[in-house]
Amino acid sequence: MYRLLRTRASDPVRVAVIGAGKFASMFLAQVRTTPGMRIAGVCDLAPERARATLRRSGWSDAEIDSIRLCEDADTVIRHGDPEVVVEATGDPVAGVRHALTCIAAGRHVVMVNVEADVLAGPLLARRAMEAGTIYSLAYGDQPALIVELVDWARACGFEVACAGKGTRYLPAYHGSTPETVWQRYGISPERASRGGMNARMFNSFLDGTKSAIEMAAVANAAGLRPAAGGLRFPPCGSDELAETLKPAGDGGALPHAGTVEVVSSLHRDGSPVERDLRWGVYVTFAAPSDYAARCFGEYGIATDRSGRYAALHRPVHLIGLELGISIASVALRGEPTGAPERFAADVVAVAKRDLRAGELLDGEGGSTVWGRLMPAAASLAADALPIGLAAGAALTRPVPAGAVVGRRDAVLRVPDDVVDLRRDMERAASGPGGQTAGATGEPMRR
After folding, report:
1. Where does residue 194 rank: exposed (0-12), middle (13-18), buried (19+ CB within 10 A)?
2. Which domains does the chain carry?
3. pLDDT tens per residue, range 426-437
């Protein structure tokens, strides 16, 4: 890939970035030293924030003046002539709309916005393919790195038992709110403010929503089937991955093979897990033969006690510092670094406390609901409210703590075009000629 980038030194890949937050700032810092790539535009609702992000990332005023800065995404997508657009807003509604604009304009999309990907990614990826463009998950973020590990295992001929990541988890965290998040992280509000930390974003990581969203993205891109009850967050260190993350029938913690799971860096009593994988990703896989199992042992591969299940993990991910891999892969190889192929998994809104009729839901990372991973077929059967449509919804009836919020329980405050697109994806996946995969792993098709 580096060789391919060098061939573009005189005609660099033109990149536009939408959303000038932390992920974007890390990419903008690193792209300055990447050959064959240049920033054509940066879009943010507050253009001065985009300018400040560029300065903070090491750009001089003269360099910034050569970049199109704007607050209107259409301007940077349609008129800035980028080859690749990075969507990094974190807003599911905005992300879906920006992706559609990119596809219509013939631009490739690298979707940092996993919330948008889980809301409508399978349909967006299909529309991009039909338009001759590429829709890709973002390398450096954990879903793309996990999908890469799954792809590696399958290309080697191994059966994947499980794939996922690590996080800090306790059951009580599902009730966390932006007001309590810093206490649970052990960070003072003053330190969080000085560091520019977003309470809602950090709360989404803590209350389990972000883990569910990321695992849904992995399941949809890799054809893995989530457990019926969602994520279980077993405490597990890197040395125990192969022993823990295998089917229960073989002595592990999984309800079935070919699934996703997030491991906790904390035991349920709050004590730390030894050699935890809090920042990392993993895949566990089975030897297809006695000979392969013997080779695991001969070459020091970490296995379970039987020697038949093995694990490969990466202890860290570099977020936006690695994003250029996706851009180069899309622009120079014509390949995404992971893309949804089926609607196998969904993330639904669950009440954090007893909610009253008339209350407004505040969506991901807020005080009212958290997101639970579900098989897509189960979500559709329950007519559950996707977490990506929850923000601003007004409840029409009470919902008890721990219950899944149904679509009939709320009046949505989401633009009709986004709701319609989501419904189109659901119909394409579950109607005649389509499939809500997860039962078979077949790609979604018309």
Report:
1. exposed
2. 2-141+320-333 (3.40.50.720), 143-169+208-316 (3.30.360), 345-413 (3.90.1210.10)
3. 998 876 555 554
